[in-house]
Specification:
six-stranded mixed sheet, Maf protein, 15 helices, Alpha-Beta Plaits, five-stranded mixed sheet, about 400 residues, Molybdenum Cofactor Biosythetic Enzyme, Chain A, alpha/beta, 3 domains, globular, homodimer
Chain lengths: ~400, ~400
């Protein structure tokens, strides 16, 4: 079986956005053994879109479209699919009811063009879109399939990973694949590849490393006659990876580092507070992205100015004047102060120089002190991240979670 | 004149890399008024590459290829171009001399396959590659042009911005474009299009809307004989947009909403504090992403638990027990409390139910109260965002900035 992607949007051609949605489909297809040899991108133009779809349908079994499902006149994907499949657009009262329901609380935003989204090719089945207005569509006609997905990331991702993944699994039953992701933190990608080169060079199972900020995900994938057999082939490779990296393997599957940290806290019935300077709230924001994080996370103090550090966290003036805000002493006082202010069992603090300005010879841009507080008192560690302002902030948040996890694992 | 990109590389189809080179060409073409309606991506396969090139040459004046110029057997772009242009590959002794010179100091790395890179279509002119081995190629035959560029970023970028830019300038002498982005907040995309439909339907200048979270960017683009003339054509359209949406146009160009808010604060020599519940630090994180935000932003309090709201912000227990944490009263007490705790002139607060759990009939998931404090006291407003947890949090942060800006504009 083969598939092809047609990305729709003048903003992609103009380079205003980069097409990471197509990348995500590209990563999914091999997991189902689906061949993928072509990709096309067209602007918001009905004739060219139809031509691209016809070409794709002539040579591929499944055609994915990305984008062009919204309410505006630029959104032509529904029309293009109907024309390329020689089908007609019909009005779907269920979609209309769903759309009207979405606008119940803000009738002023309802304009007639929203109804375009209630049209769909007759041969299509709508895919619910809990994160937006336009549904996705699976269109099946004449032995060919078009899967139409919305462009906005927050709508596209869940639809691809949910109903579309399920659909592809049903379509490709027979030859089966299984895969598992091992998540490794605190070791660089090159060092990881060096240690498990023989696994990465293997062909079945394959091991593919994906570098993220401050962590690497190792996807192990096996092909076999049955899902069970493929699953069995994964285990020896996963074991070898766990043995190679020990506790640096923080999770398997989709669990994130912040979820692991929250689980460790829950297991100890302990609470957490944070104190942030250069990250400005990024650590708290990341922790609270986890539903139910309120079980363990009580709150945080964003102390951007020195005055706030003194006032809200009780960092002694002498620490600030003698050692500065970016120091071991300040990081430890911040962590202890946050735990005290919020009556938390554990606390983490971040104070550093994210840049682009503010660096000195002794403390260059990228210098970050991370403090922690818990049973046994306060500690701190120094890091130097050679990244952009945004990169320094993301690395600092990641490193704070890594240190907190290590501390929680101690007991 | 029209151009089309053919990106070559199985690693792009598999999603192992994202095609930012094509994005960079996409950004360059409009600067020369070159139309760009198609993009194709193919793997490292000679037949498919040739087919893609023939299709591109049949409908576009200039075809860019990216990648596939290296020394390995996978590198097939030279062969594909020769076939698609009905040309032959010839050996270029100057390229060979350059290659051998590059390996002078590491003869052990020289393998015979390096010589593949000394082959080029007879109709081509090589483009020097100071940052790698394979030269780029400009091939001109039968009124069509193929420009072949290497894939590695460090080779691609300088070649595109240097000799290719110069070549395009010579080819398109005269014609120029200008564009400007107007940023509109607090009005939905469909409502915006409804109001300026006649501008969006126009052809020169064009107006293209791009929806972001809680804001829409309108890109106005004009083509003319000279840059100055194109610039002049933009202004009447920009004025009409500003008149249509009034103060909802918060910036022109690349300035972000948080930068605008920080500038307004600086203009008033005023300071800002934030209090966040469901966004967990996201508002502070976004504001502090701006370098130099410490001029105005003093800090924030992330009060995730009710206890933290009472303790750090002084939200009265009676408010929490009678109205709950997601209420007008709590939002206003949080904003006033943050301003007090951090001695700030202005404060914004966010308290809501991001979901997926925690909703009730009266306060469904997505309910968010946003409070503000400033000269004149505290205020609040209620919102209902129908998004995922992540979406609710992002919309809430955006809305807090919108309300803060409105308040700062009052005086």
């Amino acid at each position: 079986m083969t598939a092809e992607i047609v990305s729709v949007g003048t903003e992609i051609l103009l380079g205003q956005i980069v097409d990471t949605n197509a990348q995500q489909i590209g990563q999914l297809l091999p997991q189902f053994g689906i061949g993928h040899f072509w990709r096309q991108t067209v602007g918001d133009n009905l004739d060219r879109l139809t031509e691209a779809l016809r070409l794709a349908l002539s040579r591929s079994d499944i055609v994915f479209t990305i984008g062009g499902l919204g309410p505006t006149q630029d959104d032509l994907t529904r029309d293009g699919i109907a024309r390329a499949l020689d089908d007609e657009l019909i009005h779907d009262p269920e979609i209309e009811a769903h759309l009207r329901d979405l606008f119940r609380h803000r009738p002023e935003a309802w304009v007639g063009s929203q109804l375009r989204q209630a049209m769909r090719p007759r041969c299509s089945t709508p895919l619910p879109n809990p994160n937006g207005t336009a549904p996705g569509l699976i269109c099946e006609k004449g032995g060919k399939t078009v899967i139409a997905l919305p462009g906005p990331k927050g709508e596209f991702g869940p639809m691809l990973e949910g109903p579309v993944r399920d659909y592809l699994a049903r379509r490709t039953q027979g030859g089966a694949i299984a895969s598992r992701v091992l998540r490794v933190c605190g070791i660089g990608e090159a060092a990881i590849e060096d240690r498990i080169r023989h696994l990465i060079d293997g062909s079945n199972p394959t091991v593919a490393p994906y570098a993220k900020i401050g962590e690497v995900h190792l996807r192990v994938t096996a092909f076999a006659a049955s899902r069970e057999e493929a699953e069995r082939m994964l285990e020896p490779v996963a074991r070898e990876i766990r043995e190679a990296f020990g506790p640096a393997v923080y999770a398997e599957g989709s669990q994130t580092l912040e979820e692991v940290v929250l689980d460790l806290l829950r297991g100890r019935r302990a609470t957490l507070a944070v104190a942030e300077s250069c990250t400005g709230g990024g650590l708290g924001h990341r922790i609270t992205a986890v539903p139910g994080s309120s079980d363990a996370f009580v709150g945080g103090l964003v102390t951007y100015s020195n005055e706030a550090k003194a006032r809200l966290l009780g960092v002694p003036e002498s620490v600030l004047s003698e050692h500065g805000a970016v120091s071991s002493q300040c990081a430890e006082a911040m962590a202890a102060g946050a735990a005290r202010a919020l009556s938390a069992d554990y606390a983490v603090s971040i104070t550093g120089i994210a840049g682009p300005a503010g660096g000195t010879e002794e403390k260059p841009v990228g210098t970050v002190w991370i403090g922690s507080y818990g049973p046994g008192g306060a500690r701190s560690a120094r890091f130097l991240f050679r990244n952009s302002r945004q990169g320094v902030r993301e690395r600092a948040v990641q490193q704070a979670l890594i240190l907190l996890r290590e501390r929680l694992l101690e007991g």
